[in-house]
Amino acid sequence: MTFVAAIVAWKAISLFFYPVFFPGPAVLLERMAEVYGNPGSYAIFGQTLARIFEGFVISMLLGTALGLVMGLKRSVEAFFDSWIMVLLTVPSICWAFLSVLWFGISETAPILTIVLIVFPYVSMNIWAGTKAIQRDLVEMGQVYKADRALMLRKVLIPQLMPYIFSSLRIALSLSWKIALVAEAFGVGSGVGQQLTYWFQETRVDMMLAWGVSFMIVMVLIDLLVFRTWARRTFAWRPEVAV
Amino acid sequence: MTAQHAYNAQRSATAPIIAGRDVRAGGAAGASAITIEGLTKKFPAPGAEQDFVVLHEISLSVDEGKFVSIVGPSGCGKSTLLNVIAGIERYDSGAVAVHPRSDRAAREPRIGYVFQSPRLLNWLTVENNIHFVLEAQNVPRSRWRDLVAKNLEMVGLAGQERNYPLNLSGGMQQRVAIARALAIEPDILLMDEPFSHLDAITARKLRFDLMEILQRAKPTILFVTHDLSEAVFLSDSIYMMSTKPARIFKRVAIDIPRPRRPEDSEIFDLEKTLTRDFFSVVEASG
Amino acid sequence: MAGRLEDIALRVASIAVLLLFWWAAAAAINDSQVLPGPWAVAQTIVQDFGTPGPEGESAFFDIGITLARIFIAFAASMVAGIGIGLAMGLNRACERALLAVIPLMLTMPTILMVFLAIMWFGYSQAGALVAVMAVVTPFVAVNMFEGTRAMDKSLAQMGTTFRASRSLLLRKIYLPQLMPYIFSAFRYAFGQTWKIVALAETFGLKFGIGYMFFFWFQQFNIAQTLAWVMMFVILMLALEHLVFARLESRAFAWRSASSAQGGR
Predict the structure, then answer these.
(1) Is there a contact between B136 and A142 if contact means CB atoms under 8 Å apart?
(2) Which residues span the domain enclosing C136?
């Protein structure tokens, strides 16, 4: 119901503007059809997806590892905390520019940008998760002499799952947005570059068409991968009903 | 020093007696499962004059197959004592020895532990919770299925293998914790006020069931509680503990034959006598 | 308090190591157009505070303006995000309604938001605020929502049996359990806000750190470019220590007994 209401409101507002400035639903759909209809678009999608995927995977691996170690060893936390802070505070646009400056127009630049921004966030999230681990369950494991590997597998990581999960979703979400920023300012190819091009041509309709088309691709990935996985992983948890 | 887990194949001498009557009214001297002498543990207290003494010169022993309780008020270090025996906490002086069962091959003793709260891994099924400790204790996989079935049946939860802990009541969760502890076929079973978080009816039922389990499995049990009547009902002997500092001040043997009923007048009378002694010391030390 | 000292020592060491890496890399590359060393950048920073900028303003002004923009946008986004996330977690109807919209908001890329905000609101403060809220609020809401799903059901029930009012339940039972989620959302939201404001400033908002960054980048003055990046970083780190660290220890005092690191 809310969805339909939103569409109607949208159409109403768009009547006050030129379609290239504020496209209504019908116009946007038309432009999107153009994008999807053109086979060249998929090559462009592919370029961006490849960069996203690489950046995302590297970030998750590095971030989870670091977050875990930081949470379990105080000395590591104290040491890397500031590095992560530094990484988290540099705006993506800065990294985008600097990466291009140092690595030129290449695949490395956007991937590096993604990793530099996403992996600290994952570390922080996982680290926060380790702080929430229940000591009494760890103690139980110690009493029964569970070794490190078994503790990790059955006691520590399951408690981290909600955090790993929210990290995964947000990391992917961040990765592709950063990919677009990196592409917009440095790489000269991919969906991000399309966005900048149409921005400069002041064509909101085409810019939105490309943006939304790609968004849909990412949403499909999110739905297919995460929704089903969440249901299975968290089957043991009763809802907080109201 | 960490807890020394000694093991020997021969029977050791009868445990030293601190106070009270001799337990064995005949029969051969029993092997000792747990022997503690002069155990002391302190927490460093920066700023205070002296360190905070958690355990002061604790000496006790538990013979194989016996059920021994430690009764004391909350916070007097009983849990710490169990943790030291289980090997997860250090101590400052004294000797702690835990021996595996004399009728088994000599090796590291297996210690089962039932906590106040079930401490189950809520994301694992009941059977996987038991598998967890079996894996931790390196029990061969081929035996897992039988051990799970047998022990769940023993605690009255046959058929609950695939259920999740959060779908079980508190009493049932604690039963799973007991089944988990027994599944590793422990040399000794440590129990830290396992029924104190349960309602009286469930607790009473579980105590009965524990009695029955004892008849069948005959584990060595060191049981900690603040409830004197519970201790009298369940134990072969009781150590009374007071706080500030935590020390053992009395040992009493309970000769009443099993199976026991809580309504037995013998139990009631004994409890009355002990209650006076117990509370007079405990309340005095505050 | 050996632990505390060790902490500080490690933090100092880590910054030292970072500076060392930078210095080594700069020396190796040996081209100040590509990577000036830390000393050169430090000198540039000092210079900046003495000389007026391209519009005749002082460095303090640029920094101040950026900070103001960030705080307003951050506060607005956090409040909105926490409110929405809670509403979603506690009310099924809210969850259903917003679950239709939030994924949409979440998936809109930052750059698209900023472009749209600029195209629709022009190069203005309002545009920057809208862009930030559109990006940050949904993230915070989702984090909160995940948090409500992970809450301990029995505690809420306990509160209800004591006839706790909605507001009491909220303050004493829900919020403390949600603190880890609020907290990681906090840090993330702040970082994102900063970056979007920087992005918007880079695009042509007048004044501010982002504006200076881009100005010098276009002049190919890498030392100045890095100088302004460093100013971002130092400012943020200062905020982190003065504000967030203090907040965290207050919020999590009840948890010290049961953390995984333990005291022993």
Answers:
(1) no
(2) 21-28+36-252
Question: H or E segment at B279?
Answer: helix B265-285
Annotated domain spans of chain A: 23-230
Two tokens, residue A205: 């309709």
**Is some CB atom of chain C closer than 8 A to the CB atom of A204?**
yes
Q: Does the residue C190 lie in any domain?
A: yes
CATH pick for A23-230 out of 3.40.50.720, 3.40.50.10860, 1.10.3720.10, 1.10.560.10? 1.10.3720.10
SS3 A190: coil
Does any domain span residue C7? no
Helices (H) then strands (E): counts for chain B: 7, 9
Q: In chain B, what are the domains?
A: 1-110+187-286 (3.40.50.300), 119-185 (no CATH)
Q: Look up the CATH number of the domain holding residue C227.
A: 1.10.3720.10
Mean pLDDT of chain A: 85
In this structure, how many other beta carbons lie within 10 angstroms of the beta carbon of residue C167?
8
SS3 labels along B146-200:
HHHHHHHHHCCCCCCCCCCHHHCCHHHHHHHHHHHHHHCCCCEEEEECCCCCCCH
Number of folded domains in chain C? 1
The answer, yes or no, to whether ipTM is higher than 0.90 is no
Q: Indicate yes or no: CB of A81 within 8 angstroms of CB of C11.
A: yes
Spatial separation of the C-alpha atoms in residues C210 and C216, rounded to whole Å: 10
Q: Which chain B residues are within 8 Å of A154, Cβ to Cβ?
A: 121, 124, 132
- List, for residues B112-123, the tens digit of each pLDDT value: 999 999 999 999
For CA atoms B70, B71, B75, B76, the dihedral sign is negative
Question: CB distance C237–A86 less than 8 Å?
Answer: yes
**C153 interfacial to chain A (CB closer than 8 Å):** yes
- What is the signed CA dihedral for C251, C253, C254, C255, rounded to 10 degrees? 90
pLDDT in tens, B1-55: 333 333 322 222 233 322 222 233 222 346 777 888 888 887 777 666 777 788 8
Closest chain A residue to B111 measured between Cα atoms? A144
Could you tell me if residue C200 is left (phi over 0), alpha (psi between -120 and 50 degrees) or otherwise beta?
alpha
CB contact under 8 A, B124 and A154: yes
**Residues in B 113-172 with any Cβ partner in A closer than 8 A:** 113, 115, 117, 119, 121-124, 132-133, 135-137, 164-167
Is A239 within 8 Å of chain C by CB?
A: yes
For C155-193, how does the pLDDT look when each residue is reduced to its tens digit (9 = 90+)? 777 877 877 777 777 777 777 788 878 877 887 788 778
Whole-structure pTM value: 0.70
Tell me the C-alpha distance between B64 and B52, whole Å. 33
> Would you call A91 and C195 a contact, using CB atoms and an 8 Å cutoff?
yes
Residues of A in contact with C194 (CB under 8 A): 89, 91
C-alpha triplet A76, A68, A129: angle, nearest 5°: 115
Residues pairing with B251 in the sheet: B239
Instruction: Determine whether the interchain pair C14/A81 forms a contact, defined as Cβ–Cβ distance below 8 Å.
Output: yes
Q: What is the DSSP string of B82-131?
A: HHHHHTSS--SEEEEEE---TTS--SSPPEEEE-SS----TTS-HHHHHH
Chain C interface, mutation test: which of A10, A32, A75, A86, most C Cβ atoms within 10 Å? A86
Q: Which residues in A lie closer than 8 A to residue B90 (C-beta atoms)?
A: none
